[in-house]
Each structure stands twice: as C-alpha cells, then as structure tokens.
Amino acid sequence: MNLAHTTVLLWVWGSLQAFEIVEKENIFQRTPCPAFLMFDNAAYLADMSFELPCHCKPEEVSAVVWYYQKHLGSSHTKVLTDFDGRVLTEESQVHVGSDMLVRFSIRMFSLLVFRAQPEDSGLYFCGTRKGDYFYAYDVDIQSGEGMVATFKDQGQEPFADEHHGSLHIFTTFWEWTPCDRCGVRGEQWRIGLCYLRSPGLSPRYRKTLPEVVSCGSQAVPRKLRAQAREHTPELLVQSCVVPCEKKKVSEGVMAILSYVSKVGSRPWLPQVPIQFHQQRLGHGLIISCPGARPEHAVAWDKDREYFYRTQYLRGVNRSMRVFIDHGNHLHIRFTQLSDRGIYYCWRQGVRVAGLRLGVMSRGRYRASFSDPETRSAVELTLVGYLFITAVFVTIHLCRCCCYLFRCCPNFSP
After folding, report:
1. How do residues 326-344 score in pLDDT, each as one tens digit?
2. What average pLDDT does this structure show over 133-138?
3. Same domain, 311 and 345
4. Strand, coil or helix: 395
5. Whether the Cβ atoms of residue 199 and residue 245 lie closer than 8 Å to each other
6. Cβ–Cβ < 8 Å for 168, 196
7. Cα separation of 273 and 246, whole Å?
8. Separation between Cα atoms, residue 231 and residue 169, nearest integer Å
9. What CATH number should be reported for the domain holding residue 95?
10. Each residue of 99-116: pLDDT tens digit?
11. DSSP string, 187-212
12. At a CB cut-off of 8 Å and minimum separation 6, what does 234 contact?
C-alpha cells in the first residue's frame, strides 16, 4: 500500500512539474519579442542583488545566454553563461570585490547578479549562443559611498530637487522597511536613488515615466550625467515601535525545562544561535548579520545596549570607533577590552543571531596578506620608503646642480 501511494505521489508531482513548464512556455508564446530592441531602465544600490527576467524568447529556444556591455556598441562583451545552463552560484558564496563572472547565476531564463557594484552598470542582453538578442536592460548601480542620511526625528528633511534649465534632478524613495526591532523602540528607513527628468534623452531606452530615468542610465548624455553626479543616494530614517509576535514553545522543550528546573537550577538557554569569536586587542572587526541584505531592516545590540543609526550610522561622526555602514555591517575599529560581550543581530524585526566576542590581550598573531590591516601596513611602509627615496634623490640632484653651476666657467666680462 505504501508503494502504491508513493507511485501516485510521484506521478502527481511529475504532472505538476510538466504543467508548470507548459505554463511558462505559454507565457513566452503570449509575449512577442519587440521588433526593435529597447532597454528597460533599472536602478539599484551598491551591494544589492538583483534579477533580470528574460520576458520574451522564440519558442524554439530552450536555453538563453546573457551578454553584458559597458556601453552600447562596445567591442568588449562579456558572455554570462557556461553554455550548459548549469550555473548555480549562491549569494552566500560571493565575496565583496569578486569579478562579475563569479557573481551571477541563470535560473529559468532569468539573470541573477549578486552583490552588484557600480562597475556592473551597463547593458544586459538576453539572447542565444549565436548572438541574437531578444530582451535588454539598462542597469544603473549607484554607489553608497557618499550616501546622505536624513533623520526625521531630528526635524531633518531630504535634499531639495535640483533644476538646471530643462534638467530636473530628484530623489525617488523606495517603500519603508519594517521596524528593525520589536517590543522596544526601533528604527525603519527607506532608500532613495537619484533620478532625473530631461527632454533630451535617447528614445531607445524604455522609461517608467515619460522622460524620467536614473541618473547613471545610458540614456543620459555625458554632459547631463556629469551635472547629476553630485546628487548622491539618500537614506531616510525614522523611529518606530511594534509589538513582538508570541512564539509557541514546543511541548518537548517545555518538558525538558520543567524536568531540569525540578532537578536543579534552570540553565541559561540562548533565544537565538550564538557564535563565539576571539579577537586580538587593537585589531578591527566587521560583523555581518546572517541572511541580511542592504535593503533589509537590520539592527544591532550589545547585551542590553541598542545601537541606533541616529548615533552609530557611518558618517554621523567621523571619530566613531563603533559604527554601522550602509550595508548593515557592524564595524569595530581598534578592539578594546570593553568590547567583550554578546552582539545580537535583528533582521526584519526578528532577533536572528548573536556573536559572543572575546578580546585577547596577548598571543601570537600570524600576519597574512588576506588581512586588510597587514595590507595597509605594507602599503604605508612602501609609501614611506618611496617618499624617503624621492627626498634623498632630490637633495642629491640639487647638490649636483649647485656643484656643476659653481664649476662652470664665468663668461661675464
């Protein structure tokens, strides 16, 4: 009887899969490809991951190939595929600074780019191995280095729109994130990217609103793009308070706790998974929240101390030793003994993980070029050596010149 049930379930599952594939093929049949290739404009913040769906393709094409060009008509084109459709890159395996050729994945004809960087801005084409294009995107990755934070609780207002003749530069904000904490005062924010309106844009680029594209779009002429370069992305922050959802404890856990409490004192059980880490005194540390993205609502606590962005956001104070960057990472510069404790991470209003930090005042530290502090020390040493060498050579050249001029014959009467 179990074998019969298993056979029926496998048959139903195979039928559902076939139905899903047929439905997707029907979608492509109902969506004809444009006769003239257009570019859909899309803008994202650096370190975000995005997906570009291939909205149309001919029926006979069973696998697509994605192409990337920095500029339209460029002779250098990157082919984003392994020609077998087996690219299975995971976001958790991607490191900052990796080349785009190891930061993408193709799934169900869609292109996924992980942790995008401003260098990834450009044109993306969906096509075949022969180089026939069906659909295209104009992607603008805006850097968060100069991002300006605005705190509504302090009465601050976002940047005003800029008008330069017919050119209108403004900020388009995304939706508010959920409250980053529950049960206590938290914060929520919204990301704003730079957009502009101008009548002189290229008609080949498809726009959400008439004559409106992101500031780094290929549709914007270079002259106008230079004027919009100073309008950086914005971050709007405000306070919020939401209650926590009650979680039901399983009967098995309750039975164990009741038994332990009868035998002796109840042990301390962490509410979230906690990782242990030892850090050497005086060295820097960067902590990431598991599964968090720049667009997520992420908060950090140390024991019972709350790190609010109004005080700990990067750029609020240049002399901060502990701060939160725009990618939701917690930075500790020059670790001190007082930094010992448990650092909790909130994601989308739920506490998800913790890090018990220990600080070692002694012990050997093996230097490695993978360590950013080691690379900085080597770079500073080389720069100092080159500077001293340049000063030494300059002094001796000056002495040689003075010696030669004194030895030259005097032709004056």
Report:
1. 888 999 988 999 999 999 9
2. 90
3. yes
4. helix
5. no
6. yes
7. 19
8. 8
9. 2.60.40.10
10. 666 678 888 788 888 888
11. EEEEEEEEEEE-TT--TTEE-SBTTE
12. 147, 148, 149, 150, 158, 159, 171, 173, 191, 192
